[in-house]
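Entry: Zinc finger protein
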Amino acid sequence: MKCYICAEEGKSTDAVAICIVCGMGLCMDHAIRQENEVWTGGYPFPAEKLKETLPRILCKYCSIALKKGNPKGG
């Protein structure tokens, strides 16, 4: 798989990750790693935010969209 953003720029670079939201292949230069909050407590609603976080890989488009949707700015 090749990096989609590099392909848009006319380059051919191997992908090293996939955006967890849209599935776009990403090279090291375009992969954005963000930490994801972890909640516990079960159904129907999580009750407690844990100190640990989980990493997620995003493309620049999904990262911007998620930050716009978060009133705290990510």
